[in-house]
TrEMBL record:
Entry similarity comment: Belongs to the class I-like SAM-binding methyltransferase superfamily. RNA M5U methyltransferase family.
Organism in which the protein naturally occurs: Dermabacter vaginalis
Pfam families, per database record: tRNA_U5-meth_tr
Claim: Iron is one of the keywords in the record: no
Coiled-coil residue windows: none
Protein name: 23S rRNA (Uracil-5-)-methyltransferase RumB
GO annotation (BP), single: rRNA base methylation
Amino acid sequence: MSAFAHPRIDPDSGICEYFSAGQCESCSLMRTPHDVQVREAHAQLTELLADVATPSTVWDEPLVSAPWGFRTKAKMMVRGTAAAPVFSFPGSHEGVDLADCPLYPPLVTEVLESARALIRRAQVPPYNLDKRRGEIKYVLVTATPTEAMVRLVLRSTSALERIREHLALLDPRVSVVSANIHPEHEALIEGAEEIHLAGADRLRLPLGNIDVDVLPRSFTQTNTAVASELYAQVARWILDAGARTAWDLYCGVGGFALGIAHEARARGAHMDITGIEITNEAIESAQGSAKRHGFAGAVGPHTAPEAHVRVRFETADATDWARRQATLPDAIVVNPPRRGIGEALSRYLNDSGVRTIAYSSCNPETLAADLARMPHYRVARARLIDMFPHSTHNEALVLLSRVAPEND
């Protein structure tokens, strides 16, 4: 029986009623108990990494998510009519409203309901894919435990004034509101233009010991609780390895870099970290967070007179930037998209001589391919990351230690 009380979860089977009714198949492993999902995923990961792991590899216990209420981000397609908008997932059954999906915490569902009230009152017609008519395409929500950011993806600006008139209908915990203008008829969820409508210009997202600034177009992890422990785990690994300089490649809004900085400060250790991300908005978010934490490119508050922690963020391509550097760090963190770090960066890292690498992967298959190109490193530790329960999508975290080649 599920310990999470939700009206859409059967109290006996622990299965979501949308899945039971065949109305939503997003959670393809719903009928498999969560603990079994984790065991099977762990077995698959160990098999996948069998060629790059060694008998001395330490397999840490999987980082396990709560089975329900863990998704702090919602991307809801708007269907139906202005008078009766329907919130659904892309690919879900027409007419099935999924705003109260049990994967969402209550705040997300409550914010979605207030967005529905806004759409009705402002009479904003949902975009019809077949007819290519209508205005609102998606409602995007990012939530913390106490507040939320709402983004309305619109075909044009024609409904903006009506929307502005009725913004007070949004849940009072909504602290950031923006409109994303997406005129193209294409599969991409959002467009290039973002218009601030109300509240602050960014959301402050707590991630365990740190918090990060999230601008409307910044990427953040969907499972905040698991991401928080992921960042903390990497920070412990990097500091335990004795690193005093580090790169955070594909740093996003700075979760890993700031987590390492916090851990160094807590230990009274020296640490100099550089985060690299190709997206300007993510770097702006990371720089704001670093400044607020006292790390922004200067000596920050510390716990011992001899300790200092410095964090810098730059906008650049990770591979190109790394190749240009004259001095290597003690440790490197990589957190690439699903395609992995690729041949160029994996071969560069293999030849670099860096002592310690932490690789956070959202696609274990590309992780295995990248590691196969890095024979100068061994997998010292590995951990399954249960980021998306009830799905076949699993993530992995590995700690790599340098193995000196014969010509070193």
